[in-house]
Amino acid sequence: MTTEAASPRVPGTPCWVSLMVHGMATTQDFYSALFGWEFRPGPQQLGPYVRALLAGREVAGIGVLPPERQLSLAWTPYLASDDVDAATERIRACGGTVGVGPLDAERSGRMALASDPQGAVFGVWQGHTMKGAAVFGEPGTLVWNELVTRETAAAGRFYEAVFGFEAEPVAGSHRLTLCLKGRPVASIRSAADAVLRERGPHWTTYFAVSDADAAARRVVELGGRVTDAPRDSPRGRIAVVADPEGAAFTVIQRPPR
């Protein structure tokens, strides 16, 4: 898991994460209290949008869904690209769907929103003045992204073809690690049909915390909920939680180095 932002980022590297919500003010209050985020305005091409900052460094984005859009809410990872237009052509050629863009986000960069052949939504970001998150792996920041899907092998082939990932099986599990130039950057795991019936194939965002148990308790105090109680995992102690509007994410307390 990465602890520092790479500059320039290797194309394909998860570089940003964004959430679309109905209530901007209440969502900001929740994440401010949970992670210590502050906010400032971001590009407005798709409606009201703010960038979250931690200690003055950009770490995530939050936008507002149009009132008529009753979609399930989810954190969406953005994968770095040096040519969004070419990336969207590869997405289509490999069986994916481009839902938004490519379009310019003011002077910050160029972006698109797409879904893979199994329906998992992700973004593509070509940074100009804003390359992506300024820091990774510290408490309150993005540390990992995992695709939850039905067919891990098929998903691996799609992301390999579009972004150049090397998909490496994880021994003893139904999981693949996605690597770029030998460096792990994300993962894919299979899930039971019961899990996928609720949300469908989706990307899961992991945020680092200093204490997973305390973070889970704080989520509940702030009006969210815990969907998977804190437990130990090979990567550290994790809990799956959801904010007050239902957007799920994972908090992870990594073991000391």
Describe this structure in words.
- This protein has 257 residues and is of the alpha+beta class.
- It has helices spanning 24-35, 84-93, 152-163, 193-199, 212-221, and strands at 14-21, 38-41, 49-54, 57-64, 75-80, 97-105, 109-115, 121-127, 142-149, 166-169, 175-180, 183-190, 202-208, 225-233, 236-242, 248-253.
- The strands form two sheets. It has an eight-stranded mixed sheet, with helices on one face. Strands 10-11-12-9-13-16-15-14 form an eight-stranded mixed sheet, covered by helices on one side.
- A hairpin with a 3-residue loop joins strand 6 (97-105) and strand 7 (109-115).
- The protein is globular and about 45 Å long.
- Residues 1-8 have low confidence and may be disordered.
Question: Top keywords for this entry?
Answer:
257 residues; alpha+beta; 8-stranded mixed β-sheet; disordered N terminus
Fraction of helical residues = 10-25%
Write down how many β-strands occur, each being a DSSP E stretch of 2 or more residues.
16
Mean pLDDT across the residues is 91
- Between the first and last Cα atoms, what is the distance in angstroms? 12 Å
Which class of secondary structure composition applies to the elements?
Answer: alpha+beta
Written as H for each helix and E for each strand, in order along the chain, the element string is EHEEEEHEEEEHEEEHEHEEE
Q: Helical region count?
A: 5
